[in-house]
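Batch manifest line 237
LIGAND: GLP
JOB: complex structure
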Amino acid sequence: MKIITVKNAQEGGKVAFDLLKDKMSQGIETLGLATGSSPETFYEEIRQSDLDFSHMTSINLDEYVGLDDSSDQSYAYFMKQQLFDAKPFKASYLPDGKADDLAVAARDYDRIIAENPIDFQILGIGRNGHIGFNEPGTSFDATTQIVDLAPSTVEANSRFFDSIEDVPKKAISMGIASIMTAKTIVLLAFGEEKAKAIKSMVEGPVTEDLPGSILQKHDDVVVIVDEAAASLLTTQN
Ligand code: GLP
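JOB STATUS: finished
ARTIFACT:
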C-alpha cells in the first residue's frame, strides 16, 4: 500500500483527482464510486474540472435497502448531487435498494460488475474498518449481497438523517471479492475517528474482522489520509 499524508480533505481530494486524471489519460473506462463524506472533496475537484465522462461507466459500491433516488438520503441521490448532474457518464450503476427481489438485484449487480471491470475504485472506510457496507465478519469471498448494518455504522450514518430511527438497517453492497478485482484502488480517510481503522487496515493482520485489511493483498492501493487519520501509524511519510 502506498500511503500519502495530506494536510486536509481538500488536499486529499486534489491528490485523488490527479491520480484519476492520470489514469484517464491512459484510457481507463470504468470508475468504481463511493459515497460518504470522505470522497466529497474528490467529487468537488471533478465538478470543477474539464474532465469529460460521457464515454465512461461508473459503478457505485452500495445503496440502502428501501431508498431510491427520490429519497434525498439515498446514495443514488447523493451521487446525482455530487457528480452525475454535473458530469454525466455513458452509464451509471448503483445497486437497486428498492428491488422486489433483492437477491436477484444482487446477482444482476454482479453481472454488471463482470461486464464492466473496474479500473479505478474510490473507497472510504468506516470507523469499524468496513469498506462499501461490508461490515466486520463479512467473508472476503463475498460478491454483491444484502447486509445488516452494524449498530455503530447506523449511529455514524445517522448524522445524515433526521433521527437514528430513520437510518435503514440494511443495505445492498458490492462484496469484498468484487472490490478486490478493481485494478487501482484509492482510499480516502480524514479525521481522528478514522485513525484506529487506518492503523488496523495498514499495519494489522489481514482479517475478516477488519474488512479493509484485505487491501494489504492488493498490489495497487493508494491510501490518502490527513494527519489525524494517520496519527496512529507507526511509519508515516
Ligand atoms: C458508509 C459507506 C461507506 C463509507 C463509510 C464512511 O458506511 N457505505 O462506503 O466509506 O460510510 O463514511 P464517511 O466517509 O462519511 O466517513
